[in-house]
Automatic annotation (TrEMBL), chain A:
It comes from the Eukaryota. The lineage of its organism: Eukaryota, Metazoa, Chordata, Craniata, Vertebrata. InterPro entries: Proteasome_assmbl_chaperone_2, Proteasome_assmbl_chp_2_euk, PSMG2_sf. Forms a heterodimer with PSMG1. The PSMG1-PSMG2 heterodimer interacts directly with the PSMA5 and PSMA7 proteasome alpha subunits. One of its GO terms (cellular component) is cytosol. Gene3D superfamilies: PAC-like subunit (3.40.50.10900). This is Proteasome assembly chaperone 2. The gene is PSMG2. It comes from Alligator mississippiensis.
UniProtKB/TrEMBL annotation, chain B:
This is Proteasome assembly chaperone 1. InterPro entries: Proteasome_assmbl_chp_1. Belongs to the PSMG1 family. One of its GO terms (biological process) is proteasome core complex assembly. Keywords: Chaperone, Proteasome. It holds the Pfam family PAC1. GO terms for cellular component: endoplasmic reticulum; proteasome complex. GO terms for molecular function: proteasome binding. The lineage of its organism: Eukaryota, Metazoa, Chordata, Craniata, Vertebrata. It comes from the Eukaryota.
Length: 247, 281
């Protein structure tokens, strides 16, 4: 599932997963915690499948990959984010998922010197999931999200987890740690703007682990050519066309 | 983030939740203030049929026609509603930063109100004129207080609403679009023909119409929304008349008034609106 966070990167990445794997919708996460919105099928590929109504939080599933995805399409209503966290975690716990993966992002401008020089992708594992996938993260050579000093430059001893711009990422993660939920957080440092490249980077990061789609490694470069399908709802992300009279 | 003028400003985040805000524990004073605000923002519905409907004994309803915004409200007032065939059966009272609804049932187009009417010849037909802003945090409450008290079996819902044409996303410029124009969205269960094209991706609908349509989609109630995209923000005949194709739909056809009566009503509404919209009054 995504966190509504800076650049909406988690949500964009989830869109790519649903669109590429052609995941069918299996239900609605009907809640009073999110701003209502509706629109026609955001993953429409043809006239026939473009008329199904979508709401602000929906669940998609692909049994062949044992994958369930929750997509969130609108921000929280004021003071409702805690209620939402509780509801979603209680749903996750009762559905007995083997792993819960939260896709998120954090403000790039809050990185320290070390973070500026390394990869912009980070992960976090709750103690429950650490036991099962901790080794995989080592093999993948991923970087764990660093803790920051509570009072930097004064006292570097006390460190806490800080995910600025991550929305409810930290809340969901700390709650998962205390409730024994196997949660992994995958996040990217980014800024607001055209966040499609950030979403692609994050979804490729997820794919390194879950292997949802085949990646073709180009031998001449270090970039992987991946086949993520951009959903039809991503057109006109920056508004309508320009009036010809402007020129 | 630095602006062009060199000042440093905090970049607004789409995250919506400030981490510091999320971490700060609510003090008892904060909790008290929040509770008071919630009480002030509570949505209340006063139903007049006796006995009053309850969730266990809801109001019988086969059709719910809902209009939101002054042009859609004026359309129903001109072409459907009158004081002879319809009676007031409910009133919503709410307060938010944008409006406070009136307690009266005798309302002007410039007033804030949300009233329910019932067709005398068929009491299962309900009409709701919502001429007030229902804030984000009140929309769910509105749904609970309305749909919780009306029968949902064999219910059909039609929603009329307006939206600024600048919100419409199109590859051409919105300046060249022949506005006003009508677009529709319908739930899976809605099988009747619709009288205009469907709203194309990536366009979305928000506010109360979205809340009602989401509710209907989730609870499998046949519902259709007709959204009029217009470049006029005040009460306007051209915008109102854009809804006319809806009158030939199955849900609405039997409710339409005579044409001369409608034209007269429309003229009166616009005149009243002009008087009350005078900046000197």
């Amino acid at each position: 599932m995504p966190s509504v966070s800076v650049g909406n990167v988690g949500q964009l990445a989830i869109d790519l997963v649903i669109s590429t794997l052609d995941m069918p919708k299996v239900g609605y996460f009907y809640t009073d915690c999110l701003v209502p919105m509706v629109g026609n099928n955001p993953y429409a590929t043809a006239e026939e499948n473009s008329t199904e109504l979508s709401i602000n939080a929906e669940v998609y599933s692909l049994p062949s990959k044992k994958l369930v995805v929750l997509q969130i399409r609108s921000p929280f209503i004021k003071n409702k984010y805690r209620s939402f966290s509780q509801t979603v975690l209680s749903w996750v716990k009762s559905s007995k998922c083997a792993r819960v993966i939260l896709l998120s992002s954090s403000h790039a401008y809050q990185r320290d010197d070390q973070q500026l020089h390394s990869t912009p992708l980070r992960y976090l594992l709750s103690p429950t999931i650490q036991k099962t996938v901790g080794d995989q993260m080592q093999e993948l050579n991923w970087k764990e999200m660093e803790k920051v000093a509570v009072y930097p430059e004064i006292n570097n001893a006390e460190k806490v987890l800080h995910i600025p711009g991550g929305g409810i990422t930290k809340l969901l993660f700390t709650e998962s740690c205390s409730k024994g939920i196997p949660m992994a957080v995958l996040l990217k440092f980014c800024s607001e703007g055209d966040n499609i490249p950030d979403a692609l980077a994050l979804v490729n990061y997820l794919n390194e682990w879950l292997q949802l789609i085949k990646n073709e490694q180009s031998s001449s470069t270090t970039t992987t050519a991946s086949h993520w399908k951009i959903p039809s709802s991503w057109k006109l992300l920056f508004g309508s066309g320009l009036p010809p009279a402007l020129f | 983030m630095a602006t062009f003028f060199g000042e440093v400003v905090t970049a607004l985040s789409r995250a919506g939740v400030d981490e510091e805000e999320a971490e700060r524990e609510e003090t008892p004073e904060d909790l008290e203030i929040r509770r008071e605000l919630e009480k002030k923002r509570e949505v209340r519905v006063r139903w007049s049929p006796r006995p009053e409907p309850t969730p266990d004994a809801p109001l019988r309803c086969s059709r719910l026609v809902l209009s939101t915004g002054r042009n859609a409200v004026a359309f129903l007032s001109s072409f459907i509603l009158d004081s002879v065939r319809w009676e007031v059966v409910g009133a919503v009272s709410l307060w938010n930063e944008w409006c406070r609804t009136l307690d009266a049932t005798n309302v002007l187009p410039t007033d804030s109100f949300c009233l329910f009417y019932r067709l005398l010849s068929d009491p299962t037909v309900l009409l709701c004129q919502c001429n007030c802003c229902v804030a984000e945090d009140q929309q769910f409450q509105w749904l609970e207080k309305v749909f919780g008290y009306i029968q949902k079996k064999d219910l059909q819902v039609i929603i009329l609403s307006t939206c600024p044409v600048t919100n419409y996303k199109t590859p051409e410029s919105t300046l060249t679009l022949p506005s006003p124009f009508l677009k529709a969205l319908k739930t899976k269960e809605f099988k009747d023909t619709i009288c205009c094209p469907l709203l194309e991706q990536p366009n979305i609908v928000q506010d109360l119409p979205a809340a009602v349509l989401s509710y209907c989609q989730v609870w499998q109630i046949p519902a259709v929304l007709y959204q009029c995209y217009t470049d006029v923000i005040k009460l306007d005949t051209v915008t109102i008349e854009t809804f006319k194709p809806v009158l030939s739909s199955k849900i609405m056809a039997s409710l339409v008034k005579d044409v001369p009566e409608s034209t007269e009503m429309l003229k009166k509404l616009l005149a009243t609106n002009e008087i009350h919209n005078n900046i000197y009054t």
